[in-house]
Write a structure and sequence with these properties.
Blueprint: H1 2-43, E1 48-52, H2 67-73, E2 81-85, E3 90-95, H3 100-106, H4 117-120, E4 124-127, H5 131-139, E5 146-149, H6 161-171, H7 182-193, E6 198-201, H8 203-210, H9 215-238, H10 245-257, E7 263-264, E8 269-272, E9 293-298, E10 300-301, E11 309-314, H11 321-340, H12 347-359, E12 380-381, E13 384-385, H13 387-390, E14 396-397, E15 418-421, E16 424-427, E17 432-435, E18 438-442, E19 447-449, H14 458-466
Parallel strand pairs: 1-5, 3-4, 5-6
Antiparallel strand pairs: 1-2, 2-3, 7-10, 8-9, 9-11, 12-13, 14-15, 15-18, 16-17, 18-19
Helix pairs in contact: 9-10, 9-14, 11-12
The structure holds manganese (II) ion (MN).
Length: about 475
């Protein structure tokens, strides 16, 4: 009896701790997430919008909620779903009923805590087993009701929507791997179960919102930019011949972890010598040598926002003449790109600006035909620099995913867009691979370089390595 009573007290205390944590987070963000839900409901003529959160994962990595679900809820409780009813403007959160054992082991959720829906910004919080009743009540009165669900693949912290299906396509080269993804399973199941409902894809409307960052997101990105930049600086400072790539990675990770990052936004690329020419080298196992370059591609995942920074430096602290030549060219290209960014600018404007800017400078282009860029084309053709071969458009969007959702469209850049520009040149014959990458935020009249705290001028890097 006493034992049972003690267990009850324990359970009660655990539930209290869990509810305090959840409440604090939601109180901070409630208005933000409510605004996002209203914005989505304003975009579509729907009888209902349905989004699923992630079920509890059994992997060894910390739980990170589905990006789209988190974007509209801020809720990290596993197994949740969200219903939006645009006609009434209502938001309903659905959650699993947890067993006492689950609560004891992993903590509670809002439903089992009997949380006040209004305090969390929802109209109701109900068991997820009610989902089908909501579907039938809101979409079952007539044939052809519009129910918006996510039909495109989900993106994850280190992979965009298209990349997720690319991984899937590659994995199913063996037909023994061809189980459908969870998202596709849900889509198929809904269509099978409700043949009279018109299921439409909500993802383009989500992407239109996610691509323009809110003020709250910009603040997180600025913080992540500062912290990730400090991580890269720490990596530069521990570098010397003989150090292992994983030790350099650890220096960067130590900084971001101690500032509250969930982890890296993607497996860090810490490449020395010949490894600098493998664009996504992830092993971090080689011992560095005198004369090597070190290329790092690194960013933290912080409050559901990512960062993407690349820097390249000489392991011994001094650029060789060849390293210096290629680095200087890439740096001038990258800086010119950033100078050209402002609202309304299109890809062709950036290329034209870079040509104009570099036309006034002198570069030694000998030997550059032996390099390749991200486009897998040479940077020099017939003795002439080919800027469009070196930079691939504006680069990729950065946000909740490091290859974030969104499109540039015909209007070019818009305030609130965030992307990474990452020109690189690689020569596998000599082991000289160089990439310089910053994440930038488009402002009203230009851009803000979120990762600017990491030095990229040759003098600055050599100076930092002296200390
Ligand atoms: Mn990148």
């Amino acid at each position: 009896m006493n034992n049972n009573f003690a267990r009850l007290i324990c359970l009660f205390v655990l539930i209290c701790i869990a509810s305090v944590t959840v409440c604090q987070r939601a109180e901070i963000n409630k208005e933000e997430f409510m605004k996002r839900r209203q914005a989505l409901m304003g975009k579509v003529d729907a009888d209902m919008i349905l989004l699923f959160g992630k079920p509890k994962s059994e992997t060894g990595t910390p739980f990170r909620q589905d990006n789209d679900f988190y974007y509209f809820t801020g809720i990290e409780d596993a197994g949740s779903a969200l219903i939006l009813l645009p006609a009434s403007g209502q938001s309903i959160l659905l959650q699993p009923v947890l067993s006492p054992r689950e609560i004891y082991f992993s903590g509670s959720n809002l439903l089992c805590n009997n949380s006040d829906p209004a305090e969390m910004g929802f109209d109701d919080i109900v068991p997820v087993s009610d989902l089908d009743e909501y579907i039938v009540r809101n979409c079952g009165r007539k044939s052809g009701s519009d129910l918006f669900i996510r039909i495109m693949p989900p993106d994850v912290v280190n992979g965009g929507r298209m990349e997720m299906d690319l991984h899937y396509a590659r994995s199913t080269r063996s037909h023994y791997n061809d189980q459908v993804t969870l998202n596709t399973y849900r889509v198929n199941k809904l269509k099978h179960r409700y043949p009279y409902i018109n299921f439409r894809d909500i993802s383009p409307y989500i992407d239109e919102l996610r691509v323009i960052k809110t003020e709250w997101e910009k603040d997180i990105l600025r913080k992540n930019g500062r912290v990730s930049a400090e991580g890269v600086k720490a990596a530069i400072m521990v570098t010397e011949p003989g150090v292992y790539e994983y030790q350099i990675e650890a220096a960067a990770m130590n900084v971001v972890s101690s500032h509250g990052a969930l982890g890296p936004a993607y497996p860090p690329i810490v490449a020395s010598g010949p490894n600098t020419c493998t664009l996504h080298y992830e092993k971090s196992s080689r011992q560095t040598e005198d004369g090597d370059l070190l290329l790092i591609d690194f960013g933290a995942c912080m409050d559901y926002m990512t960062m993407d920074i690349s820097r390249t430096w000489p392991v011994n602290g001094r650029f060789s003449p060849e390293q210096r030549k290629v680095y200087t060219l890439l740096l001038e290209i990258q800086k010119a790109c950033i100078e050209s960014y402002k609202p309304g600018v299109k890809e062709e404007d950036v290329i034209a600006y870079v040509y104009k800017k570099l036309g006034t400078m002198k570069f030694d282009l000998t030997g550059l035909e032996n390099y390749i860029s991200h486009s897998m084309k040479p940077p020099v053709e017939n003795g002439k620099l080919k800027i469009e071969n070196i930079i691939s458009g504006f680069g990729h969007f950065v946000g909740m995913a490091v290859h974030d959702v969104g499109e540039y469209g015909d209007e070019g850049l818009k305030p609130g867009m965030v992307f990474a520009i990452e020109p690189g040149l690689y020569n596998p014959d000599t082991g000289i691979g160089i990439r310089i990458e910053d994440t930038v935020l488009i402002t009203e009249d230009g851009c803000e370089v979120l990762s600017e705290a990491v030095p990229k001028e040759i003098d600055e890097i050599e100076e930092l390595m002296k200390n």
